[in-house]
Amino acid sequence: MKGVKRKRRWWWVLATVALAVLVAGCGATGTAPGAPGPAPGVGGASGGQTQTIRFSEVIRSIFYAPHYVALANGFFQQQGLNVDMVTSQGSDKGAAALLAGTADISLIGPETSVYIYNQHGEKNIKAFYQLTGVDGSFLVGRPTSKPFHWQDLNGKSIISWRPGSSPQMVLNHVLAEKGVHGAKVITNIAPQAMVGAFRSGQGDYIQVYEPLASMLEQQGVGKVVASLGEAGGSYPETAYEATDAYIRAHPDVIQKWCTAVYQATRWMESHSPSEVADVIAPYFEGTPKDLIAKSIQRYEQQHTWPNNPVLTQEQFGILQNVLIEAGTIKADQKVPYNAVVETRFAQKTAGGQ
Q1: Distances in Å between the alpha carbon of 251 and those of 2, 243, 261, 346?
Q2: Predicted confidence pLDDT, tens digits, the chain (353 residues)
């Protein structure tokens, strides 16, 4: 795939872990200001003291709604876990925090596990719970009444994510499948600056997650023209991950974590998008609840949150084929499934509910 540096040096990320970690957090805490706390009477799983888990989320997005539901409804607290949360603004930074030991669990793209494994370092990270089963980004164009066709992207510019990231690779994969030619994919804008660049007139299209897609549409700045999740199909976009050493040392924490998130996902199935929006709104301060509810509905319609949180061998194969297509790994650098995926905790959680 053009536009991706085939010799991307992940050892550089590892060598500069300390710097990555310093810029990783944006100050988000496990309980957002004004967020509802656990239900009355909720304590630890055994009624004792809770254990603090340092957690790094890749970005703040409604794409990860089950996580915020688990926080707001006290499902982590019920398991005896207190979540100390920061936002890393990138899977590479979230992975760096794990390797540096400044995060215990990160929500990141599983592709980072492949990159790190191929560096043959002292530590590896493993995906133990798949939170999302499709890409969560949407393609937003300039406001128009014309129906969208993929060929409209021929020769156009698209603000996307950094090279080697899941959304960027999924976009390029879809563009190739749809026969789009000559599109310029812009990958050198920081995530927090992408929307501002689009607002200022840069790019014909932008690839963003919810609630930003709905927000741009409501404000008349853009129009959602396509779902990359629907266009790209099954794809293990994000998973909870930890170092193999942490998983071995704290299997009880990993199991409790899986239980809390699975409980939140099931809770969402029996509540309306508006009810979910009421619960997670404090984590999206300044975003109207109707936009949050619309975002939830969009994600539910494309079956974002899988019933089975196990990252399967088939999905992992899809991921590695996309990485090869993107040029971030070579065909002879495919990683063994069991080397970077841990299934027993998610299997026990889903099988025991």
Answers
A1: 41, 12, 16, 12
A2: 433 333 333 333 333 332 233 233 333 344 444 444 443 333 455 456 889 999 999 989 999 999 999 999 999 999 999 999 999 988 899 999 999 999 999 999 999 999 999 999 889 999 999 999 999 999 999 998 899 999 999 999 999 998 888 899 999 999 999 999 999 999 999 988 999 999 999 999 999 999 899 999 999 999 999 999 999 999 999 999 999 999 999 999 999 999 999 999 999 999 999 999 999 999 999 999 999 999 999 999 999 999 899 999 999 999 999 999 999 999 999 999 999 999 999 999 988 54
- Which residues, in sequence order, are CB contacts of 256 under 8 Å at separation 6+? 45, 79, 80, 81
Q: Which of 315, 333, 316 is nearest to 324 (CA)?
A: 333
DSSP track, 72-106:
HTTHHHHTTEEEEEEE-SSHHHHHHHHHHTS-SEE
Residue with tokens 């897609």: 213
Does 92 share its domain with 215? no
Please, what's the b/e burial string for 227-262 (b: 16 or more CB within 10 A of its CB; e: otherwise)? bbbebbebbbbbbbbbbeebbeebeebbbbbbbbbb
Helix (H) or strand (E) holding 128: strand 125-132
**Cα dihedral: 38, 42, 45, 47 (round 10):** 140
158 assigned to some structural domain: yes
> What is the Cα–Cα distance from 219 to 221, expressed in whole angstroms?
6
Domain final position from 203, 232, 261: 232
Please name the residues in contact with 277: beta carbons below 8 A apart, sequence gap of 6 or more. Answer: 289, 290, 292, 293, 296
Rounded Cα distance, 310 and 107, in Å: 15
- Domain termination site, one of 200, 232, 264: 232
Alpha-helix runs per DSSP H in 270-336 = 273-280, 289-301, 313-326
Q: Are residues 115 and 142 in the same domain?
A: no
Helix (H) or strand (E) holding 126: strand 125-132
The packing angle between helices 251-269 and 344-351, to 10°, is 40
